[in-house]
Design brief:
With about 100 residues, this protein is mainly alpha-helical. Helices cover about 35% and strands about 5% of the residues.
């Protein structure tokens, strides 16, 4: 896949990245090279290979999902500058 300067300028605009016009040609070449490598990955035969998230079989350590502490709302809001009925009160930020 080959990208031209106009396409790279459009991508940069959509990504909100300021790219000087003098760099567009070089960037187009670099992105085209990357796209060629990505297209080559599609040629790899992956039939029969299980999808995986890690090269090492490992399970995440998990803790029991149990409530072990709580009921201290008064202590949580004790240092709040403004609290009402055990809730933090903050100024309105969205109109």
């Amino acid at each position: 896949m080959s990208l031209d300067k106009a396409t790279v300028a459009k991508i940069a605009h959509l990504a909100r990245i300021k790219v000087p016009d003098s760099d567009l040609e070089q960037l187009a070449g670099e992105i085209s090279t990357i796209m060629t490598w990505v297209e080559m990955l599609g040629e790899v035969d992956t039939q029969g290979i299980e999808p995986m998230t890690s090269v090492v079989a490992a399970n995440l350590r998990r803790r029991p999902d149990a409530v072990t502490d709580g009921g201290y709302a008064e202590k949580v809001v004790a240092n709040a500058t403004d609290a009402t009925e055990n809730f933090f009160s903050v100024p309105k930020v969205v109109e």
